[in-house]
Structures are given as structure tokens and as C-alpha cells.
Amino acid sequence: MSIVGYARVSTVEQNTDGQLDALSAAGCERMFTDTASGKLARRPQLDAMLDYVRPGVGGGRCCRRRRRSTRASCATAASTR
After folding, report:
1. pTM (2 decimals)?
2. Is 10 a catalytic residue?
3. Could you tell me which residue, 46 or 61, shows the higher pLDDT?
């Protein structure tokens, strides 16, 4: 089982370096990133990550950004693997 992470920033002027460092420190082996406003419903890399952790695809745990801080929170993804 692998640990998967997701990071997002709102504008191209921002960067995900701090979030990716925190996810890496949490043990994430595969990370997905998006640059998208919080009001936009479309986040292609979030969709890709969710597809990856769905049962029968990649399985594993999902680490994701919490609030606007660089702290990562880990939650067990639903998996029947």
C-alpha cells in the first residue's frame, strides 16, 4: 500500500513547495498537484488522485493539505484491496 498526497495552490504566483515538503515528510510516495481557485469545481489532479486510490486501481492512503497551512493530514482512503 502506498501513501498518496495532494497539494493545491490558488494562483500561479503561489507554489506548492512547502506543501510538497510536508507531504514528503509524511511519507507520501506519489503526489498530485493542482493550481486552481477554491471556487472552481474542476481539479484534474484531485480527480486523478481519487481515481488512483479507488479500490482496484491503486489502493492506499491519501495525504492531503489541510486548510491553507503546509501541515499534512493523513486519512485512510476507503479500500477493499
Report:
1. 0.65
2. yes
3. 46
